[in-house]
Design goal:
The protein has one helix and seven strands, in the order βββββββα. With 132 residues, the chain is mainly beta.
Length: 132
């Protein structure tokens, strides 16, 4: 795995800042090398393989982020579980278009009610430790 700051346009990375620590449904779970104990951060903005996806878990093993990459290896969208402008965490999606990361599209609300059933059903197999 690489890093977002050392991506080569020809593909791949100049240094490794991420390591694979497992898989869920054939999608690699990554952990940033050297990250402080309780820190999570976000997945790299570029993937090593066109069209791949990665998963990031919290230090306690609970789901934090799923990131899908396009054929150009750039981040296409994220599924996140967190407190984006909310007192409580909820499941939401960010779609990348250009350089901006738009406001989230809720998949659940802060109470845990499923709002977007089709997205939830599609990605629920990756939501390790999330109780709705």
């Amino acid at each position: 795995m690489g890093s977002s700051g050392s991506y080569l346009k020809s593909g791949g990375f100049t240094s490794q800042e991420w390591e694979q620590v497992g898989e869920i449904k054939s999608v690699k779970i990554l952990r940033k090398i050297g990250l402080k104990k309780d820190a999570t951060g976000n997945l790299p903005l570029y993937g090593n393989t066109p069209g791949t996806a990665y998963i990031l878990l919290k230090p306690n093993g609970r789901f934090h982020q799923f990131r899908q990459y396009g054929e150009d290896r750039k981040a296409k969208f994220d599924i996140d579980y967190g407190r984006h402008n909310s007192a409580k965490p909820y499941l939401h999606m960010h779609t990348y278009s250009g350089k901006d990361r738009p406001e989230p599209m809720p998949i659940t609300n802060a109470k845990g009610d499923i709002i977007n059933k089709s997205l939830y059903e599609k990605y629920k197999g990756f939501l390790k430790g999330i109780k709705l």
